[in-house]
Each structure stands twice: as C-alpha cells, then as structure tokens.
Design goal:
The chain is α+β, with helices and mostly antiparallel strands and about 400 residues long. It folds into three domains: about 140 residues, DNA methylase specificity domains (Adenine-n6-DNA-methyltransferase TaqI, Chain A, domain 2); about 90 residues, Helix Hairpins (Orthogonal Bundle), CATH 1.10.287; about 150 residues, Alpha-Beta Complex (Adenine-n6-DNA-methyltransferase TaqI, Chain A, domain 2). It is built from ten helices and 20 strands.
C-alpha cells in the first residue's frame, strides 16, 4: 500500500523548554539502540551533574531528539509522567496524536531512510559536532498511511526486533558462560594473573606487531581477483575470520609487503570501526596473506600467550572497555598502534590458557551458529523496515 507523504513539520512541533529548577525528577539518558533509559539503571547510579536546574523537563509521550541525529538517537518518553534530560536535547510534541502512532513514527525516524536523510544534510566539518538545522529536520518527508496501517506496521517491526533482541541476548549469555568458565579455571587453580603490556605478548621482532602500510589509496592496478589475499576489517567481523573480500595482490607485491604478511596463528585486530578492536585468529587452513592499514597483525610469542586466548581477551568486555579508553573519534572511531601496544592484558599460565582454548573450541560451533542467526535476524529486521516505509508490507 502506498502511503501519503507529509513533511515532519506537519506532524510535530517544538516544545518551549521547561527547566527542572529544584524539582527532583528522574534523569534520563539517550542510548543509540535502547532509546531513553533511566540514568540510574544505565550507570547503576545517578551520574548527572549535581545541579540539574537547567535540565529540560520531558513529559510522557513527548519526543526527545539527541545527537548525533544521524545515529538515530531519538525516542518518545514513555517511562515517567515527567522526567528530565540534557539541556542539549530537543523536545517535541505531536500535533495530532489521533493521526500518528508514536511507535510507527519513532521507527521511521530511526529507519535507514531517515538516517540517510540526516547524514546528507548535516552541517559542520567536525564529525561529532555536526547538527541538522531545525527547518531541514521539519522538512523531511514522512510516509503516513492511515492510523490502523501505521499500527499494523509498527507491530510487525516490533516482532522482528524482538526476535533480533532475543538472539542477541542468547549471544550475551554464551559470552557470560565463557567468562564464568574462565574465572572458574583461574580460581580453581589459585592462579595469579600476569599483567603485561600488549606489545610484550608479541615475538621480539620488529615486524611482530604491525598494521598494513596501505589502504584505500592502493593503486587499482595493484589489485587483482587472484593472488595473495588482502585482509580487510570486514573479514574479521564477529571475532571469527571469515573472508568475504575478493581483493588480492600479486606475489611480487606481497613480497614488497612482507613486513605486514599474515600466516596461520596470527591475531588480527580491527584498528578502526564501530567499534574498533575486534580480534580474530588467522586459521591454519588459510593461505598466507597481507593486511591493510586498518588491520593490526600480532605474531604472538606462544610461550607467553596463546593466540586464541589473546583474541578472546580482546573481544571480552574488559578488552573492549580498554580499547574504548584509547579510542579517539574522528571521521571513524580509531586508536593508534602505539596506544594499543601499551594497553594492559592479563595472562594466566599457559596450561590454564590451554584449558580455556579447549573450551573455546567446543563452544565455537555454537557461537558461530548464534552469530549467523543474529545476523539473519538483523537482516530480516532491516529488510522489513525498508519494505515497510516503501509501502510494501
């Protein structure tokens, strides 16, 4: 069913800012995927500044728009009759609540089509400070079918999203199991963890901890369909090496890039991305390869650490937290090779690492299947969203 299109400004209007003053109201934070959440739940405590007098009051059913808007940080406030949010957020009312379903509108405003509209119209050269002019935001076209149709579409998308969330929760539970199993191995043996800088885990050779010297500026004439594989970030997505790139270089070019060659047992880490720091072990059955400038290759000293253990550590919540602490925001989130080499890592004795790696090998098929199911759920949800707002559901 094709839907009538209307400008967003015909649907919502700005709310005159009402300041919190001395009122004690719940403080809400905006998250990219979860919308508005209670700050006390998110951080286990209230972390807003003590003086919240200038915070904005947002009432139930009002739309809150955060930033950067091209990441979909917006949500209707449905948690409390009244709460407060950052003074930097915009607050909007529906003009005609009997004409628009709030869940439908929020899903559209966070859809790929809407995000592409925001991204194309943002102003400023600094990535995290770009803003969308109000008149441009309100000029965005919105498909607006009859209210029953809006509710039907929202219900379909909600079910698809619920499946996606449940599969992600299953992956999270599997990760929790591995963390618990690791702690059990350490505690059972009364093990003291050795703390080293990540650079000390590599072999004592100059080229043991490197990233590739080339990237998108590699001459097209040097790229081929056959030859020595070139490893990109997309090949280590999900913490498991799975080559999806088809780019290769000649044997002669690979010889020139021997300092960033990859062989069985090397640990590969994404240097940029959302988020950066995803690690995977290069498997035994793959041919030698080379990495781009966005992928770090670590040749591990296996008398100190096993590659599978090191990759699991980097992909763990602790590893991700440490990577985040050295990440800087530019056009893409990234960290420097020097900061990464100085990052601390905890290592149990090799025999404990071996037991943990054995456990990993038994659970990896299940994890791979869960990852595939999660990817499929995300693809289905994204496809349904695209179809919904093209009038094809």
């Amino acid at each position: 069913m094709s839907a009538q299109r209307t400008q967003l400004g015909e649907i919502i209007r700005p709310v005159k800012a009402e300041r919190a003053g001395d009122r004690d109201l719940p403080v809400l934070s905006m998250t990219m995927h979860g919308g508005l959440v209670d700050q006390a739940d998110k951080f286990k405590k209230r972390v807003a500044s003590r003086d919240t007098a200038e915070y904005k009051v947002v009432n139930r059913h009002q739309l809150v728009v955060g930033f950067p808007i091209d990441e979909g940080v917006l949500s209707f406030q449905e948690l409390y009759e009244a709460a407060i949010v950052s003074p930097a957020y915009g607050i909007w009312d529906l003009k005609q609540a009997d004409r628009v379903d709030r869940e439908y509108l929020e899903r559209y405003l966070r859809s790929p089509r809407a995000l592409a509209y925001y991204a194309a119209k943002l102003r400023s050269t600094t990535a995290r400070r770009r803003s969308l002019p109000r008149e441009t935001f309100l000029a965005m076209p919105v498909p607006l079918p009859p209210l029953p149709e809006q509710r039907r579409i929202a219900a379909i998308l909600d079910k698809a999203d619920a499946v996606r969330r449940k599969r992600q929760q299953t992956i999270d539970l599997a990760d929790q199991f591995l963390r618990s199993a690791f702690l059990d191995l350490v505690n059972r043996n009364g093990t003291k963890l050795q703390r080293l800088q990540l650079g000390a885990v590599a072999l004592k050779k100059r080229s043991s901890f490197v990233n590739g010297p080339f990237g998108s500026n590699l001459l097209k004439s040097e790229l081929h369909d056959n030859g020595v594989p070139v490893i990109y970030i997309r090949d280590i997505r999900g913490g498991i090496y799975n080559r999806v790139s088809t780019v290769c270089v000649t044997d002669e070019k690979a010889a020139q890039l021997s300092a960033c060659s990859v062989m069985s047992g090397d640990v590969l880490v994404s240097k940029v991305g959302d988020p950066p720091g995803i690690a995977a072990v290069y498997p035994r059955e793959e041919p030698d390869a080379v990495v781009t400038q966005d992928v770090i290759r670590i040749r591990v000293d296996q008398a100190i650490a096993l590659p599978e253990y090191l990759a699991a550590f980097l992909n763990s919540p602790l590893g991700k937290h440490r990577v985040k602490s050295i990440t800087v925001e530019a056009t893409r989130a990234r960290f420097s090779l020097g900061a990464f080499k100085a990052m601390p890592v905890e290592l149990p004795p090799i025999e404990v690492q071996e037991r943990f790696v054995e456990l990993l090998s038994r659970t990896r098929p299940m994890q791979a299947r869960l990852d595939r199911l999660a990817d499929k759920s995300a693809e289905v949800a994204a496809s349904l969203t695209q179809r919904a707002f093209r009038g094809e559901l």
